[in-house]
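Chapter summary example.
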Amino acid sequence: MPEGHVLHRLADELTTAFAGRPVAVSSPQGRFASEALLLDGRTLTGARAAGKHLFIEFAEDRVVHVHLGLIGRMTVEPSHPVVGQVRLRIAADGRVADLRGPQGCRLTDPTAETAMIARLGPDPLDPEADPGRAYARLHRSHRPLAAVLLDQSVLAGVGNVYRAEVLFRHGLDPLLPADAVTPALWCRLWEDLVALMAEGKRLGRIDTVRPEHTPGAMGRPPRVDDHGGEVYVYRRAGQPCLVCGTPIRQRELAGRNLFWCPTCQQGG
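The structure predicted for these 268 residues follows.
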């Protein structure tokens, strides 16, 4: 599932390509056809992300709420014929944005948009986010920290990759109870997520290894994976830890695959 940096990057691309312009809106697939008719020809005023949610805003209080889910994808490209099952197409001035396979795509309004965002935890990519609000929720839970970090009502936008990687970077046992996290530790985790996710948004991929563990520094081949760049533990089960050489482990936790190093992650 795309993590928050993907949605923030996409919101910026949509805003740059279409904001302030009347746009042609269609649903080649047909599943958003009636809603597209209501939007066709309206001015797209902007797009913004909150966690893993995307909001595309139009004049006269119209908002398209998109949740990509596991297989959804939206691209902004030079104009071209429709290819595949496109749920939503936005077009103007030689550019098109095509949405395929989302978990959700619905027409709503600014009031509903505000209500949905209010139900989410703070987003590390939101410069006005309050990390203290996330800590207050996290500290009330005795669930494993690795599970709580994926709870979007606690922390918005963090997914399986950033969850695994930030825990490794701070040497934390994934099963550490969330209520054992101190304010100082939470501050370090939050600041690291802010930096990592901002870099992910800038690059369009997830890189989490420190300079001394890059392929060039270690003399190892670059990682080849469709989920992005260089990481410590995510989807590296059975491979040696880049720091200590211990085989990376994998287990299921709260319905998601968890990856960690049993040697480096004993903290907490």
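To summarize the output: The chain is about 30% helix and 20% strand.
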